[in-house]
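User:
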Amino acid sequence: MATIEIAKRTATRPTWAEVSLRTLRQNFRAVQQHIGTAVKVCAIVKADAYGHGAVECARALEQEGACWFGVTSLDEAIPLREAGIRGRILLMTGFWRGEEEEIIRLGLTPTVWETGQIDLFDRAATALGVPKHPIHLKVDTGMGRLGVAPEDLPRICSALKSSSHLVLEGLSTHLASSEVLDEPSVAAQLKSFDEVRDFLRNEGFNPPLIHAANTGAVISRPESWNTMVRPGIALYGYYLPFERAGREVSGSGLRLKVKPVLTWKTRILSLRDMRANQALGYGGIYATKAPARIAVLPVGYADGLNRKVSSQGRVIVGEHYAPIVGRISMDLTLADVTGLPGVSVGDEVVLLGATDGLSVDAREHAALAETVPYEILCGISKRVPRRHLD
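Assistant: Predicted structure:
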C-alpha cells in the first residue's frame, strides 16, 4: 500500500486572534491594586481562558505573580500542569468519580459540597499515602447550582472530622446578582455565607481562604472580598454594566481600569461591485439600495462570529467603519466598503478590537446578539488561531 505523506504547515486561512499578554498582565495588576495585597487573587482561566488560550495566559499571569488559578475541571487543569504551571489550581466544579488520584498526583485542589466527595477523596489520599490534601467547600447561599445547603452542614462537618487525610483550606460561594447594586438577595447571600463561616468555626474549622467575589463583586462589593477573590472576565478586559432600579449606573467607584486583551482580525478575500437592488447572502435579507462595493471576508459563524450580528454589526477597514450586510454564513461575511478609499484584496479587517481611534468590542457584539461579552469571547472557535503577543 502506498504511503501518503502530508506536509505539516501553519494555518494560512487569514482569520486570527491576537492576544496581548502585556495587557493581560496590566489587567491583573489593576485587579490586585484595586483589592490590595492582603487579598489573594484566584485568576480564572477556565474555558481556555475565556477563549484567549489558557496555557499562554496562565503562564503570563504566573510570571506576573498569580499564585492561584481557577478552572472548571480536571481536563482543564492537566494542560496547565503539563505546560509547567506550578501555582495552585482550583477545580471549581468538583470532580468525577475516578479522578481523585490524578487530582492528588497533580497537586490540584478540588471543590466539594457532598459527603460522598469527601469520602472518595479521603480514600484516594489514604491509598496514595498523602498525609493531608487541601479541599475547598462550596456553599449554596442562593445561586441554586452547586454547593451544600447551609442546613446540611452538620453532615459535611461530620464527614470532614471522620477524614484523616483532608484539610479544609477554603470556603466559597457564588453571588447570583453582583452587578445589581440594589438587589437584596446579594446581601442575603453574604449574610448566609457569614453564618456558615461562624458555624464552621464553632465546629472547629477555620479555613484561611474565604472567597465569594467574582468580577462584578470585585469592582462593586468590597464587603465580599474576604481573603481571596475570583476575577474572570476582568482579566480579559471586560465586566458587565452595573444596575440600580433597573437602570445602568456608573461612577468612579464602579470602574476598573482594564482593557480588552483580544483583537480578532481577518483579511479581505474578494471585492465585488454590485448593482442597486442586489440581494446579498442567504435569504436575501439585505439588498443594496444603490450600486455598492462589497468586501467578502473569510470568517463566519463557524469561527464564532455570532449570526445575530448579521446586518447589524460593523467591522473596521483601514480608518473607517464598514457595516456588515446580509446574513453571516458559516465561512463568509459581507461588509459594505462603498466609498472607502484605497480598499484592496488582502487588506486587514478588525472584527473585534481597536485601531486608529475606532473600536468594536465584545460588548457591542453582545448587545446586538442579546447576550453577554463572555459568550462572544468564549464563542471564538478553535478554527481561529490565537497569536500571543508580549
